[in-house]
Amino acid sequence: MSPLERIRDxxxxxxxxxxxxxxxLEDVVLTLLSAVIxxxxxxxxxxxxxxxxxxxxxxxxxxxxxxxIEIYGRLLDENGQPLKNQVxxxxxxxxxxxxFGRTKSDGSYVIQWNGPTGTYRVLMTVVLxxxxxxxxxxxxxxxxxxxxxxxxxxxxxxxxxxAPIPGY
Length: 168
Prior knowledge:
There is one protein chain. The protein contains two helices and nine strands; from the N terminus they run H-H-E-E-E-E-E-E-E-E-E. The chain is an alpha+beta fold.
């Protein structure tokens, strides 16, 4: 038998093309490798940017003869543009929602309530144009008759792009 006939016989077998003598193992490895490639191309080629909130709180100011607690502020996107019609909620330490507000066209909101002095959590929720939802929160020690400024700025935490290297 000539060397070419031996190569042909080795490559073309009744069971198909296999490099080793373990065709089942080869099929499993190739199937897993194909799945990994599909997953990598589907998720690593472009991962959309993730967003988070940067929240700042102003010092409390006493309101003249008021028994209410007031929280005010603005929500802005990463470019400093106002985020309108977004939700700002206020929760007591027990987890009960005690206040609710929506941002106006300039991104501002105000929540007032007749709550006792205590610990409260401000939760900001923004629905992105892409349909994603971003939340941010901060905890405040509030006193009756005081106002608190709570400002939220949406920040982008990064985008990952995959650039394949030729030959790999």
